[in-house]
Structure formats: C-alpha cells, structure tokens
Design a protein that fits this description.
The chain is built from 11 helices and 10 strands. The chain has 274 residues and is of the alpha/beta class. The strands form 2 sheets. The chain has a 6-stranded parallel beta sheet, with helices on both faces. Bound molecules: D-glutamic acid. The site of D-glutamic acid (DGL) has 17 residues, from helix 3.
Length: 274
C-alpha cells in the first residue's frame, strides 16, 4: 500500500531542526521538505506576506498528495495556521510555537528567556500564549532580527562568526543568565533556525542554563495525528527507512549544505517556483 509523504515547510533551512526530530520519531515515514528561502526571512516581513507564502506552499504540498503538513516555522504558524486549517479542514496540520509550557516545568528561578523572530513575538497567537502563562513566571522576550539569516549563511559557508556575534548581542540584551535567584535559568528557542546555533549559545551561556525548543514535542504530536488518521496508508506497518525529498524556492546550495551538514542528507535539492 502506498505510504504517502508528510509535507514540512519553513521560511528556509530552520525547519530541518524539526525534520531531525520527525525522522527520529517516525523513521519509516517519507517527508517532502520545502524551504522558502526565496521569500525569507519571514520574521521581519508583514503578516500578509507570510500568510500568502504559507498558503501557496501548503497548496503545493497538498498537490503532492501529502497526508499531513507540518508548519515547521513559529512565524508562519502564528500568521497562518488558523487560515490553513479553515482552507484544509480534513488535512492534519501541525504547527510550532515557543515552548513556554515546557520551560515553566523546567525553570527553578522562574525567569525564562525567549528568543524568537519579531513576527512571532508581536503576533496575537504568541501574546495569547504568553498571557496564559505570564502569572506563573517572568518571561524576558528578545526579538532576534537577522539571526535566522545569519544561520542560513553559516550553513553554506561553515563560518559561524556572524551567528556568534548576534547571539552574544541578544543574550547580553536579555539580562543575567544562571541558576541563582533572579537569573534566567531557561532559554526557549522560539524559532526553528535557532537550534542550529545551540553550540554557539551553549558556549555563551555555560553548562547550567537549559536551552529548549519544541522539535521533539512537534514530532510526537505529528506521530499521534498521523497514526490516528491513518486508514489505508500502511505506514505504521512499514519497516523500510523513510526518505526526505528537499525543495527550495531559493538557492539549492544553501539547503543542500545545511541538510548535509546537520542531518547527513545527501539527496539532491530541487528548485521550486511557487
Ligand atoms: N524559522 C522561522 C521560525 O521558526 C523564522 C525564520 C525567519 O525569520 O524567516 O520562526
């Protein structure tokens, strides 16, 4: 029986951090990944742009007969998931949002840092999430203009200098990190690009601060949804290794380099015009 693929998209290479978690959770599933690098960054563009791009990519993935779509981008989830669900009522759609609740469970000092794009932090969806948790801890938000772009460039060049400089600037802007009272002891990576800077962030923060993202939670949620909606897929019974097909609206070499460097994938990236 045919095992239909799961579609995954992001503004660029960031969603590969979610693909990594998805492949661990669902090793027999096939994935179609779309990096919208030709129209990035999303986090510093207006909502109408992010919404239009998310709709176009989701339509493309549906035309490829995917059985579910993972919006592997916090900014696109905030701007578009509601509309995408209205437009595709039968399609399982999984979004990603900053892991505030997981951070609350981990933090001992009650001070939690959140790094995300400007688009995510100013969205109504994030504000509602924040308000629902605000009484339980003190959150320090940092919009990280330029960081996703710097990570895209470092994927291709292998040079993290620009990423390190931006991480240092944003971390120092948030206040004192550490495990003493009043220090920020937990940092939420609220953009799917940022896990690819976690080595640089760890070097800046030291060993005690907890750095978290939502990749694994999204992967678990995807497994639950895909398995609960599986009918004739045969996917749960499949024992063959899943594949990842890579597409980009930008420069293929950027996604190619990132997929090779971070996920060990060597499949050729195809250029997409949508
Ligand atoms: N990876 C995206 C996110 O999770 C945003 C990167 C961008 O600004 O394009 O929000």
């Amino acid at each position: 029986m045919k095992n239909r693929a799961i579609g995954v998209f992001d503004s660029g290479i960031g969603g590969l951090s979610v693909v990594q978690a998805l492949r661990t959770e669902l090793p027999h599933e096939h994935f179609i990944y779309v990096a919208d690098s030709g129209h990035a960054p999303y986090g510093e563009r207006d909502v109408a742009h992010v919404l239009a791009r998310s709709r176009a990519i989701t339509r493309y993935l549906v035309s490829q007969d995917v059985k579910a779509v993972v919006v592997a981008c916090n900014t696109a989830t905030a701007a578009a998931i509601h509309r995408l669900r209205l437009e595709h009522p039968v399609l399982p759609l999984i979004g990603v949002e900053p892991a505030l609740k997981s951070a609350l469970a981990l933090s001992k000092t009650g001070r939690i840092g959140v790094m995300a794009t400007r688009g995510t932090l100013t969205s109504a969806k994030f504000r509602a999430l924040l308000e629902s948790q605000a009484e339980r801890a003190s959150f320090v938000m940092q919009a990280c203009d330029g960081l996703a772009d710097a990570i895209e460039r470092s994927a291709e060049t292998g040079d993290p200098t620009e990423t390190i400089a931006l991480c240092a600037r944003y971390i120092s802007g948030m206040g004192q990190f550490g495990i003493q009272n009043d220090q920020i002891d937990t940092l939420v990576l609220g953009c799917t690009h940022y896990p690819f800077a976690s080595v640089q962030l760890r070097a800046l923060l030291g060993p005690e601060v907890q750095i978290i993202d939502n990749g694994e939670a999204i992967a678990r949620q995807t497994r639950r949804l895909v398995q609960s909606t599986a009918t004739d897929e045969g996917s749960t019974a499949s024992t063959a290794a899943g594949t990842v097909s890579l597409f980009t609206t930008g420069q293929p070499q950027t996604l190619q380099a990132a997929a090779g460097r971070w996920l060990g994938l060597s499949a050729a990236v195809k250029k997409l015009s949508i």
